[in-house]
Write a structure and sequence with these properties.
Blueprint lengths: L5 E4 L3 H11 L3 E4 L3 H6 L6 E4 L8 E4 L2 E5 L4 H6 L1 H4 L5 H6 L5 H4 L4 H7 L6 H7 L3 E5 L3 E5 H7 L5 E8 L6 E7 L9 E10 L2 E10 L6 E2 L1 H10 L3 H14 L10 H20 L4
Parallel strand pairs: 1-3, 2-3
Antiparallel strand pairs: 4-5, 5-8, 6-7, 6-8, 9-10, 10-11, 11-12
């Protein structure tokens, strides 16, 4: 691993981007620093600190809630605003991912920028319909799932915006791990909006397949059309086992992950009907 010879504390987003462009591949942004410690590119010799760029707040804005890229999992878990958003799922699960020391280091921007397949934050943000604000010399805003697909480099992620339209919906997360602090063998997140017996909105995301987070609109559509009966969830589970791409790695086989896909959908059904929490 190469040596770090310079630590540059940017005083604005514009300063950070200009410095990164000047230094090219030898520079990397510092959020919480977790990924840089574990998997730093050996070409990197300069770190650009974003802590003075005003990206560490959680704010209610006109069209939702804005979470700055420097906000940590620990801060999300304590946020009174996020505890009232989409059933409080983001705040709840941010306090259960990894262990406490890491929750004080893992940031929103770092999680999105690195987007590891086992990442538990990104799939839940996708299910919630989050948009990303980023700067590359100009201000941009795009759906998180589109930002990840584009594989942008050299930009500063300013934060995410959680849409106000989810005020009456509820988020769901199911992660299968060997221990609470382990990374997921399979992750399922969902956002469900129900009025009476009618499912008005359903977003379903799987990750740790072992591939990256993927949104499955066809599963959400089937849930909206089928309603919330036990038979509907059994049918949805069968569809999910066919639709969700799973693979084998050193931690689990594809067959085992396919069974976990079914278990996740059945758990979603139990959660929706109040049979489990």
């Amino acid at each position: 691993m190469g040596r770090i010879v310079e630590y540059y504390r940017a005083d604005s987003i514009e300063d950070a981007v200009a410095t990164a462009r000047r230094l090219g591949s030898s520079a990397a942004y510092v959020g919480g620093g977790v990924e840089l410690v574990l998997r730093r590119n050996p070409e990197v010799s300069t770190l650009i600190d974003l802590s003075q760029c005003g990206l560490g707040e959680i704010l209610e804005v006109e069209d939702g809630i804005e979470v700055g890229s420097q906000v940590t999992l620990a801060a999300i878990s304590r946020s009174a605003v996020l505890k009232c958003y989409a059933g409080g799922s983001l705040a709840l699960w941010s306090g259960r991912i990894a262990q406490n020391n890491l929750r004080n280091m893992i940031t929103v921007g770092g999680s999105i920028g690195r987007n590891q397949p086992w990442n538990d934050l990104v799939p839940h943000l996708i299910a919630l319909g989050a948009e990303v604000r980023f700067f590359d010399g100009a201000e941009h805003r795009t759906p998180l799932v589109s930002y990840i697909d584009a594989k942008r480099t050299g930009t500063v992620i300013e934060g995410i915006v959680l849409p106000s339209g989810n005020a009456n919906a509820k988020g769901f997360m199911w992660r299968f791990t060997a221990t609470q602090q382990d990374i997921s063998l399979l992750h399922c997140s969902a956002l469900i909006d129900v009025a009476g017996d009618v499912v008005r909105k359903a977003s379903i995301v799987f990750a740790g397949r072992p591939g990256h987070a993927a949104l499955y609109p066809q599963l959400g559509q089937e849930l909206m059309e089928g309603g919330g009966s036990q038979d509907a969830f059994e049918s949805l589970a069968r569809s999910a086992m066919q639709a969700v791409e799973v693979g084998t790695d050193h931690r689990a086989t594809a067959e085992y992950r396919r069974d976990l896909v079914r278990a996740a959908i059945i758990s979603l059904g139990d959660w929706m009907t109040g049979d489990t929490q």
